[in-house]
Specification:
By secondary structure, the chain is mainly alpha-helical. It has one domain (3-96): Arc Repressor Mutant, subunit A, CATH 1.10.10. The chain contains six helices and four strands; from the N terminus they run H-E-H-H-E-H-E-E-H-H. It has helices at 3-13, 23-29, 36-45, 75-82, 95-98, 102-105; strands at 21-22, 57-58, 87-88, 91-92. A hairpin with a 2-residue loop joins strand 3 and strand 4. Helix 1 packs across helix 3 (36-45) and helix 2 (23-29) packs across helix 3. The relative contact order is 0.20. It binds a DNA duplex through residues 2, 4-5, 22-24, 27, 32-46, 54, 57-60, 64-69.
DNA sequence: GATATGACCGCTG
DNA sequence: CCAGCGGCCATAT
């Protein structure tokens, strides 16, 4: 497993309950501001990592772009709603209010192991 | 070994 | 303000 993937999983696992973040935010936190796609790809591989709440990771617009990759297209939305996040038309309502930025919440760069 | 694709993001027209 | 295109990095074929 690439270290990049491990880092992504580590960050995603640190997402607080009822909070969401974006691929770009994670990528930027890992030092790869242009590798947002890789974060998404890592999420794809995250299927082997049940401990990774991929449903809390959405795109910059708060759109559930990856919901199609879940068991059911509605599973992702259900999980988010279960956490108190309102989802409408595959988009998180008040996304900015639920947004969790690791760059401003977690330490600069000294996590994982 | 090279080409194509992808759960994205940002800029330019 | 809305729409379209390219870039970037890693994985899969």
């Amino acid at each position: 497993m690439s270290q990049f993937f491990s880092l992504v999983y580590t960050i995603v696992k640190k997402i607080p309950f009822g909070r969401v973040t974006s691929y770009g935010a994670i990528a930027r936190y890992l030092g790869h501001p242009r590798s947002a796609r890789m974060v998404g790809y890592a999420m794809n591989a995250a299927h082997s990592q049940p401990k990774v709440p991929a449903h809390r990771v959405v795109n910059r617009k708060g759109l559930l772009t990856g919901k199609h990759h879940f068991s059911g297209s509605k599973l992702m939305q259900q999980l988010l709603e279960s956490e108190g996040i309102s989802v409408e038309n595959d988009q998180i309502v008040d996304f900015e209010d639920f947004f969790w930025d690791p760059n401003t919440t977690l330490p600069p760069f000294e996590i994982e192991v």
